[in-house]
Design a protein that fits this description.
The structure is a homodimer.
Chain A lengths: L30 E4 L2 E6 L14 H23 L12 E10 L9 E10 L4 E9 L2 E12 L8
């Protein structure tokens, strides 16, 4: 049983509303390494509505954002020569997020997110994410992740 | 007492998790015309955390998104020669959203969103949104809004 990337974040930085294991009121999203990609599954709740029948775009943006940060963490571990799970995962934050809503996303089933890193160095990573419902890609995101600045660490 | 733009959306399309008056579990965000701008105030709840002490970026993206749709609706009404509130407000949906997170957004106080339309025609509107905390702009968004397609109308 592999660990979710978010379950490897340090205890002090695992409160994210989207994906923090210490945020019981949050979405508790989990992302897993799958070869060269990172994959997550998430089923919106009925209240996560945009117009009746469709998923709220703000939730879609949120899921893309958190999933991209996990993808950046996995890539940083791999670049450091570690397999994800061998140590705590590094915490990234979002510098910029863009999302294209290609089609309305139907509500009622599971969404699948797939991400990969398109560029990275020590200072940032660029991640592309697709979100699909019923095997149809309905949104794509491009996200710039940067390592959590020391100013955000309130240990 | 002016009406919030979202309170003028048709009853059948007022369920948005971010700003729908018929979604009791949602954020119930409200946007108001203020001269050439549209303004909203929102106080995140404690669980809307990214890292401890800071607002979740997914919430910021969500607020920018809903606020931009309201701004597009107000601009469409104005272009049609009506003051907002004189009729039901037209419903727009998001084609694309980009957000730059300029600084960490501190949690605990009220956020202020200000938006204006930078370009519009019958087919789309482009909206720029700033989000500030304690009078400091911490995020900016650019959003493309399009009129709700008929395929999303499940009246």
């Amino acid at each position: 049983m592999r660990a979710a990337i978010q379950d490897l974040y340090p205890d002090d930085f695992a409160h994210c509303f989207g994906c923090g294991r210490h945020n019981a009121r949050g979405h508790l999203m989990k992302s897993f390494v799958d070869g060269d990609e990172v994959v997550a599954h998430f089923t919106p709740r009925p209240e996560h509505t945009a117009l009746p029948g469709f998923v709220y775009g703000g939730l879609i943006a949120s899921l893309i954002d958190c999933h991209a940060m996990a993808t950046a963490a996995a890539a940083a571990e791999r670049a450091a020569g570690r397999e994800i799970g061998a140590a705590e995962a590094p915490r990234f934050v979002t510098a910029a997020l863009d999302v294209s809503f290609l089609k309305p996303t139907p509500i009622g089933g599971e969404l699948v997110l797939r991400a990969h890193v398109t560029d990275r160095n020590e200072r940032k990573a660029v991640i592309t994410v697709s979100l699909s419902a019923n095997d149809v890609v309905t949104a794509r995101g491009n996200v710039i992740a940067v390592p959590m600045p020391a100013s955000m660490a309130r240990r």
